[in-house]
């Protein structure tokens, strides 16, 4: 079943979540019509490879054209209209930046997998609950409402300033008219009445000046309060959501909404600034004793400039954290001399700034001596922000050709570092620029989340563990000494993050039973993990009891095994995986003989085994487990074919396949049939003479079990079957069974 088909079967509350991330950037109509094709493409790799992204975009447009041809024949006018509009939209938006649509589609597919995983979980995890807090949503709505109200107030004040300007021009004209009269005329009754009228007008001017200044002061105060409280919280929440998304959590939306708020506030502040400039202009033409403008205007202008400085400084954010194109699901782990990408955005989107802001990237700019290792950035480390490269027109810049290079250390300390020291060192990539606008010059700086520098890909698993632990444990964006004394993490949250590793990396998260097994493995006991705090050492540094590897190395090897060798079986939910030997026997003991389950090896890295239940002649139950299959053996023969063809040779040398039902009671071929590399009737029989003078051979997994022992035995290696073994098979098995076996 395709991922999209699974999504369509979700409950309405989950479908509403899916609906939220499909829009004109990637319309749901295209997702629906091209479901299987979309899921068969590697959008993650394309999101960091421009050439690959361009090819995928072109192929996507070809697929849309084919759909157009189909619906044209069906004369579906509405669908024809929508597809034409969508094709034009896709080509217009992404022709100049194909990587952007790859990022969007990759994120959508990943978010679908996360929602599917969440739907299979009995309860929502604590981290995800906190990110979807209704209080947060209410605050978002309040921020947008207040920003809109502030914008309206600033515009209304504009009208007041215009009225004040008109009133002053009239006063100025009438006053100058009187001043131009002869002295004898100034003593007339009419002139005296005019002077009284001018005095009344001056009083009105004074009142209006005070009123305008008061309104400007209120607008400034409202902006100040909004920036200090709700908007700051919104920005911090977005940064926290970004942290969580980087380690596999829910996608972090809301940046476009923040950009809208920041932009409207900046426009309002610049509008207020122009109003204050206009008041200064009016002041030069007319002032008087008690005039409020020279007293209040400097203070208000200083406050406006201060708010603009802060608004711009907070608006400079890292939209997409540093990531190597070769490892798109392991952001913030960078390898020396390998390119990485990073994207920044200025949330204040003003046309005057397009191509006017040049951003410079540096590494470890403000770091003291947290690490003995020093790096420089090679490649294009200065670029201009613009509105043309982003599909949504945001003011952004993406660095695509940066490479970290390690500087040689004269102290030679690098060689003395332990295996964990490198992957626990945190570094910072900083960005700086300068904004010059309307007489203001504002220096801006921001930094990426801490990154880990590796020099060998073998360091990647432990480096990724450091990234997970940091971003799970703290919302401090720049605590580079974090691992000097890493805090413990709540086990409940850690398990949730571990499930995300599976949902984001291999398409299916972990259920509560699987998480319970991981909890027992981490703690060595059955615990109520809601209140349990796990140490960093237990997670990543200390070896598991009786093993030569850590918990994290064991888990990472399983992720790699799933991704490369058993992904379809895992996505279908047929791999129980995380179940102890004791628990599997409890599950199997009352089942029909031949019932089996698949679990990951606890003693071998990256191994998967199967255990089946059998019944002896005296009625006793016995269990058999094969030696775990690792990536080397699975590269020679697909795991589904192993399950289909597996044979056991008992003491009387009668080979048979003991695997009948996948736990709890699913017929084996029903579960795995679609994953067999070929159907039995497609396998040609070995010819008597062989081909080109060779004796024909096949690969078949075989184990030998003695009747007088119930201990599990290891399967033989997957060696070519000899003619003598083949003769035994022909003697005891029918041709149909032999075809199935080979």
The helix-and-strand class reads: alpha+beta
Q: Count the strands?
A: 20
Q: Report on the biggest sheet.
A: 5 strands, mixed
What integer is the average pLDDT?
84
- Give the overall shape, derived from the CA principal axes: elongated
User: Biggest sheet, strands in spatial order?
Assistant: 15-14-13-18-19
CATH-wise, what's the superfamily of the largest domain?
STAT transcription factor, all-alpha domain
Helix content: 40-55%
Fold-level CATH name of the largest domain: Glutathione S-transferase Yfyf (Class Pi), Chain A, domain 2
Percent in strands: 5-15%
Q: How many helical stretches? A: 24
Number of domains: 4
Oligomeric organization of the protein chains: single chain
Report the end-to-end length measured between terminal Cα atoms: 28 Å
GO molecular function: DNA binding; DNA-binding transcription factor activity, RNA polymerase II-specific
Protein name: Signal transducer and activator of transcription
Main location: cytoplasm
GO cellular component, one term: nucleoplasm
Could you explain how this protein is built, in words?
It is a single chain. With 742 residues, the chain is an alpha+beta fold. It has 4 domains: 3-120, Transcription Factor, Stat-4 (Orthogonal Bundle), CATH 1.10.532.10; 137-313, STAT transcription factor, all-alpha domain (Glutathione S-transferase Yfyf (Class Pi), Chain A, domain 2, Up-down Bundle), CATH 1.20.1050.20; 324-408 and 421-454, Immunoglobulin-like, CATH 2.60.40; 512-675, SHC Adaptor Protein (2-Layer Sandwich), CATH 3.30.505.10. It contains 24 helices and 20 strands. The strands form 6 sheets. It has a 5-stranded mixed β-sheet. A 4-stranded antiparallel β-sheet has the order 1-3-7-5. A hairpin with a 2-residue loop joins strand 8 and strand 9. Helix 6 (50-74) packs antiparallel against helix 7, helix 10 (134-179) packs antiparallel against helix 11 (189-246) and helix 11 (189-246) packs parallel to helix 13 (293-315). The longest helix is centred in the N-terminal third of the chain and has 58 residues, at 189-246. Residues 412-419, 681-690 and 708-726 have low confidence and may be disordered. It is found in: Cytoplasm; Nucleus. This is Signal transducer and activator of transcription. Belongs to the transcription factor STAT family. Residues 570-672 form the SH2 domain. It comes from Eurystomus gularis.
